[in-house]
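Filed under: proteins

Residues; backbone shape codes:
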Amino acid sequence: MDAIFSGIALILFLLLLFKLFSSSPTSVNNKKTKGVPPPSPPALPFIGHLHLFKKPFHHTLSKLSSRYGPVLLLHFGSRRVLVVTSHTLAVECFTKNDLAFASRPRLASGRFLTYGYTTIGFSPYGPHWRSLRRIVAHELFSSARLQSLADSRAAELKCLLRQLFQERSDKHVFTRVELRPKLFELILNVLMRSIANKRCGEEKSGRFLDIVRGTFTFSGTSNLRDFLPILRMFDFIGTRKRLTWLESEWESNLQGLIDEQRMLDRDESKKTMIGVMLSLQEEDPEQYTDRFIKALFLSLIMAGTDTSTATLEWAMSLLLNHPETLVKAREELDEQIEHGRLIEENDLPKLPYLQGIINEAMRLHPATPLLLPHESIQDCELNGFHVEQGTILLVNAYAMQRDPEMWGPNANEFKPERYQEISTDLSKMMMPFGMGRRRCPGEALAAKLMGLALGAFIQCFEWERVGKEMVDMEEGLGMSMPKAKPLAALCKPRPTMIDVLSAL
């Protein structure tokens, strides 16, 4: 008992010291010389607004913004956090103030899960990030590179369709299928074929799914340890142990991929993304170290798998709850693709309704509802308010993309037809891939893959809900927003596609 009281006394003493130093006369005088700060709700001593950490966090922020306005300043412990809920002001953040908000915060969990903040997603703005961005844009995700890998994407899709088809002994009876692991395996294998020209089986992809989901759970701005450093002294729920395990899993898997590529013939290795990086390593070994390469591909696997899987799962859930939309999408596919042929990437521009379904899934259920956190590297002005250097920026894409002023009175409804009525560039209304310098460089690949996968599912199979109840649309937790309850559905091959599926 004495030890407990001593611990409590020590914590209170340390918090008092922190309060005294953070409220020094110098800091007070500095505040007097700066502009008007954004509005802020009442805060508690020491923890600021951390008591508002109610999940799902984007819903809490939406409620606060409806009360205090589209620009809101919060304090998470000692860190300032700017919350933006207006699309117009978000665009201003990533255009007029794009350089000011070009960096990422160094959150404590990132030290474990981003190779010391060196991944393209979480690297601070500077020469290292610019080098990563240049390589991704010109070497890994260029139009020529994406086109050269089109056959491998098609092959992986056919592999999944063949698996779904052959698992059914009676092709005329609906069978239950768990969609999340199958979608994740598809996307992971597309990336693995591109990265290292290899596939992951069901067991391996399931392990990767655990690693990726675990990493997203501890990333972003939902970890209290990132804002109350004193909590890092304790590990009541095993957070540090879990972070260490995730770090070890990423290290062993990524280093294994690099070592395998080193053993290949040089001409064969150059066909893969890791092979390209190893060629650059030979030219400049000090710049392109193994650590550099592992950080790069950790970002690609993380960003590519979880977000695309989540979007496709949300899209299928929406279709199951709106079967009339599923019928319209199938009619479009049948009209645009000749009988006896599987959908191809070249067909996607001819399928606006299919794209509308994906757009609605990304609008209503963005994979990263608060985008990735940004950080200001200099003071700036936003909507007449002064924003200090070192402020974390959270853009509530979830709230913006359901704003009735922009999307009309039916903003919360699933309506793919709305995009046929919109003449404005969608990038001016939605930002599921971010915006500005830190926009996701894999957007083109994700668009191709999601369109191809969803189109093939609709073209090749008939789908129904499991039972009469509507699909549960509760949101999961973490930096990304998967469904809380993984989607299960009933499917059977369409009679008109049995010959096509049999030939895969």
Observations:
- The chain has one domain: 34-502.
- The beta strands are 71-76, 79-84, 175-178, 374-375, 380-382, 385-387, 392-395, 461-465, 488-493.
